[in-house]
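Page 37, top half.
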Amino acid sequence: MKIAIVGYGTMGKALAAYAQEQGHTIVAIIDRHTEKSGVTHPTVSKEALAQSEVVIEFAGSEGLEERVSLYGELKIPAVVATTGWYDRLDVVPQIATSTGASILWSGNFAIGVQLFYRIVANAAKLFNPFDEYDVLINEWFHAKKADSPSGTAVTLGKILIDNLERKKSSETARLDRRRDDDEIHVTSSRGGYTAGEHTVIFDSPSDTITLKHASRSRQGYLAGSLQAAAWIVKDRPGFHSLEEMLDEVLKS
């Protein structure tokens, strides 16, 4: 594939190297910090994307709506690995649909994480009849991660709420009060070098069951984003989640 990378931070640089190792061609690297070695354009534009078959972005959330609109206008499919925009999750899909864009997004492109989501969903269904079990989420990322909580933690909270009738909301902020019984507290730690660790804890007065996913490196995210790019280039207009791609793979 001929790939344009939007955002040339840690993940963008790792993606460029990994994609080329896998035989793909990087035709554009777009980042506002043009002093970075390898950057070809400062902003997303028709000129910057002229040679691209697909866009993969690990960028800041500012300007995402405008970028999605341009992807639709130019009919260039895009994989959106950008995080920190989940308060606009109702707006961006509408833009993709109205402009004819082909977008595949996820808060985490590691296939192992996607399978972990399904394990957590099934576990929550099992625990649903047993009110004595409370549930909480903890995540830990390296010190340089720019947002908190991660998209993965937010998604885990939604999965638990969808499958545990006694839970109605998640709280990601510091608590200076007693947590409500129908809340899930999501805590985040930033420090060290880990590529990401997420723990879901089901706890009762008599025992504790812990489910954990730990990333050893960023390779899982990179491989998943390339698989997503190969899927979205096959004429799939609209706003898609990585779950849709995984459903298709698991059914085949």
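Page 37, bottom half:
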Amino acid sequence: MRRRKRGENAVTDLILWGRANSINVQKVLWALVEVGAPFERRDAGMEFGVVDTPEYRKLNPNGRVPTLVDGDLALWESHAIIRYLAAKFGPASLYPEEIGARALVDRWMFWSMGTMHPVEFPLFFHTVRLPPAERDPAIAAKAFVETCERWALIDAHLAGRDFIEGDAFTLADIVLGCSAHRWRHIPGFERPDFPNMRAWYERLLKRPGYTAHVALPLS
């Protein structure tokens, strides 16, 4: 698919359904800023409801967020959505066309869901998302140790690299960058200093989409 240049036949009917504090919605919001596509976000999920309505279930039968509507296309699953945005709008470096370079980006996107998310999720929920009376400190402590192991791997990988896959910012940075902000601001734990990860995080903070949609108070 040929990528449109920014501003070329600018799309004005992109609608993103999802609450702003969902990490998966944040991935899409950040990607939308990176590709320069105009969009409208509509609240859905948790306290906003919507996701169980028949109208929404026609868009996303899972009843979850995010869902991106682009004309007649309704697309769900955040990683599918950001791949779609990168392929449609570019820039090419965000999701490389060369098959080997693209595979390197893909591996981190799968890794984030299969290896990071299973330990990140209980850590976040048992320190931030759940009501205090429902939090289990033992679950949080175990998950914290396991997330530190994952970030140690990332820190080692980032040695000599500006971004996850070298000099260019890619979708791999979006999916892991959202997790990084959560981990760096989880309350109640003293985090190891991972210098390569810290330098990478500081680079991400210079990107407008990150500061606008990801680097926010946890809730």
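Margin note: The longest helix spans residues 99-129.
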